[in-house]
Structures are given as structure tokens and as C-alpha cells.
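Deliverable D2.4 — example input (C-alpha cells):
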């Protein structure tokens, strides 16, 4: 009987399989070497002489962050840094056109899901038109005057120091427009919109984010424009709307700090706060509180129409305003308590038999001041109504 020690067995095993193992090892090392081989990064640095008022077109099919800044030279300077696993598969072109410069980036070949990191910085004359499109990435534009158009499939828009016409959109990022004199539109499908220190007629829209207007003014020539804002599911905040505000959200709060002429606001599920309005108001919410403060004199149209499907309503009216009150509180149950508090004499009637809406009662308050020229209609469901006279 032969006895084999562990060392002998190990030596025999290694000796028999060494050629096979060596072959496998070589293939493995080769594969790992190819996989781990560093990508060939690209750096592009090019300058093109142009005339102010020209056009920069960009079609960035690879996606990537883009930064465009105006300067006082008659040149377009392009600096691009391309890294990542598939950097050497990207074709990046800068070419002269009859109007200016065209930039394009695309994958020469696609193998499954391509991966790269593209960052582009472009300097253009301060007066220059832009036409940009990227498949994904942030877009920054600073200090450019002209017709400015662009879109991103999924990045933020950061716009400042612009003048002219702006048409910018993103499919899934935030939009910021500041310190600019522009007309046009900025929009996003799923982010916030923030407009600050802007002069011009600009429409900001979002499908699912908040909207904020802070010091957004119409040009001082002519009658100016109404601030019109709509979002599918976020809050709206308007700092100033001197030519009226018409705002709507499907599911957020609405705040207007200062307005003239009128405020029309509607939300499907939030509160409404109008801190100061010199004009008429029409406000509606499906499930929140409403507070509105009317300022200014008593001349002109000062009618009020406020309705909440489930909140309290507080209204302050100018001193001496001629009004006809039509106030209604619908109750869930005949025994529900109600509160109507007013600085004006009102005739209050309770009708427990009115069950058109919820099977409960109805409280109706009426009254008149002066010649009753302005109708004040207020309606709420199981909420309180408070009416104050301004000082």
C-alpha cells in the first residue's frame, strides 16, 4: 500500500495542470488588461474669429455640461474636456459656418450603454445668438445678448446677465433666471423655476415643481404684462405683480406679496395668501385656507370672489369701500358650529334643510355698505369667515 503525503499530492496536481492553468491565466490577464486599460481622454482647445451678432449652434448628442459666457472679443473660444470609459469613441467637431460656429459631439460607435464625461466651456461675443441642444447635462449661460434658444433632456438651466429673447427648456432639472432683461419663456418638466431681478415679459412654467417670482417687472413702456404662472404640482410665490397676477397650481400653496389691478389664483390642494392687492380678487382652493388683504382706495373695480372647499377665509377690505355681501358657509352636519366674524353689520340666516352638497346645513350672510357697488362673494365648507376693515 502506497502512502502519498500532502506535499507530494500538491506537487503532482500542480505539475499536471500547470500548462492549462498558465493558458487560463494568460487569457485572464489579457482580459483584465483590456478592461482596466485607461480610456483615451480628449482635450479640445480651439478659437474661431467671428463677428458680433453671429450664431453659435450646438448639438451635443453625447450629453454633457455646457457653460457659455459672453466676452468683449470677436472670437469664439471652445474648450472641451472629454473623459470616461468611451471617451475615445466620441467624435467632437468644431466648425465654421456662414453665420458663426457649430459644435457637435456624437459617439462614432455604440456598444451597449456608452459612458463618458463631457464638459464644454465656450466664450462668445457678448452679442451673439445661441441655438443649443444636449441629450443631458446642465446648461449655464452668462452675459450674452441675442436670441437665446436651448434645451436639455435632463439638467439644470442657470441663466444670468442676459438680454434679448430667451426660449430655454429642460426635461428634468431646475431653472434659474436672474439679473436679466429678456422676453420669452423658460420651462422644466420636473423641477423648480426661480426668476429674480428680471425685466421683461417672461413666462416660467413647470410640470411638477415650485415657481418663484422675485422682482420680476414688465418694461416701463406701455401697459406692461400680467404675471401668468402655472404648475402641475408645486408652490407659487410672486413677489410683485404690478399689472395683475393670474396663477394656478394643481397641488401647492400660492403666495402673492404685492399686486395691482387684480389677482386670480387657483390651487387644487393648498393655501392662498395675498398680502397686498390694489384691485379685484378671484381666489379658489379645493382644500386650504385663504387670506387676502386689499389695499389702496375705493375707486375702480374691487369685487371679491373667494371659495374654499375646506378651509378658513380671512378678508381685509379698504376703509369706506361700497360693498354687497354674499357669504355662505356649508356645513357637514346640522349640528356643526360655524363662525362668521365681521366688522360690518350682516344679516345671518341658518337653513338646516339645505343639503344639496353634503347633507348638512347652510349659513347665509348678507349685507350692504354705501351704494353696494362691489360684490363680495365668499363661500366655504365647514370653515370660518372673518372680514376686517382696513385702517
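Example output (designed residues):
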Amino acid at each position: 500500500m502506497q502512502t502519498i503525503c500532502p506535499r507530494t499530492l500538491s506537487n503532482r496536481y500542480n505539475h499536471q495542470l500547470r500548462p492549462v492553468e498558465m493558458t487560463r491565466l494568460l487569457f485572464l490577464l489579457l482580459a483584465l488588461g483590456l478592461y482596466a486599460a485607461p480610456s483615451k481622454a480628449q482635450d479640445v482647445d480651439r478659437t474661431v474669429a467671428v463677428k458680433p451678432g453671429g450664431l453659435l449652434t450646438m448639438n451635443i448628442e453625447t450629453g454633457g455640461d455646457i457653460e457659455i459666457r459672453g466676452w468683449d472679443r470677436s472670437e469664439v473660444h471652445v474648450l472641451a474636456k472629454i473623459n470616461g470609459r468611451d471617451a475615445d469613441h466620441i467624435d467632437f467637431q468644431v466648425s465654421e459656418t456662414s453665420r458663426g460656429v457649430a459644435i457637435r459631439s456624437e459617439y462614432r460607435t455604440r456598444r451597449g450603454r456608452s459612458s463618458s464625461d463631457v464638459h464644454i466651456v465656450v466664450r462668445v461675443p457678448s452679442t451673439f445668438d445661441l441655438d443649443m441642444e444636449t441629450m443631458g447635462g446642465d446648461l449655464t449661460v452668462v452675459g450674452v445678448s441675442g436670441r437665446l434658444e436651448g434645451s436639455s433632456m435632463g439638467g439644470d438651466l442657470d441663466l444670468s446677465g442676459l438680454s434679448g429673447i430667451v426660449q430655454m427648456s429642460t426635461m428634468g432639472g431646475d431653472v434659474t433666471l436672474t439679473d436679466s432683461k429678456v422676453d420669452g419663456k423658460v420651462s422644466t418638466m420636473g423641477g423648480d423655476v426661480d426668476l429674480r431681478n428680471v425685466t421683461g415679459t417672461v413666462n416660467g412654467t413647470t410640470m411638477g415643481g415650485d415657481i418663484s417670482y422675485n422682482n420680476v417687472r414688465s418694461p416701463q413702456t406701455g401697459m406692461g404684462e400680467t404675471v401668468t404662472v402655472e404648475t402641475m404640482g408645486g408652490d407659487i410665490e410672486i413677489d410683485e405683480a404690478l399689472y395683475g397676477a393670474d396663477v394656478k397650481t394643481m397641488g401647492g400653496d400660492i403666495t402673492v406679496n404685492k399686486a395691482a389691478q387684480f389677482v386670480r389664483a387657483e390651487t387644487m390642494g393648498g393655501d392662498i395668501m395675498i398680502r397686498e392687492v390694489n384691485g379685484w380678487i378671484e381666489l379658489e382652493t379645493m382644500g386650504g385656507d385663504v387670506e387676502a388683504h386689499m389695499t389702496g382706495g375705493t375707486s375702480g373695480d374691487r369685487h371679491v370672489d373667494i371659495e374654499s372647499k375646506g378651509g378658513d377665509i380671512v378678508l381685509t377690505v379698504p376703509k369706506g369701500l361700497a360693498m354687497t355681501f354674499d357669504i355662505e358657509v356649508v356645513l357637514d352636519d346640522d349640528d356643526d358650529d360655524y363662525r362668521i366674524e365681521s366688522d360690518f353689520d350682516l344679516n345671518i340666516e341658518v337653513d338646516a334643510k339645505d343639503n344639496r352638497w353634503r347633507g348638512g346645513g347652510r349659513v347665509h350672510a348678507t349685507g350692504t355698505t354705501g351704494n353696494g357697488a362691489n360684490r363680495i362673494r365668499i363661500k366655504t365648507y365647514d370653515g370660518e369667515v372673518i372680514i376686517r376693515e382696513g385702517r
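The longest helix spans residues 6-36.
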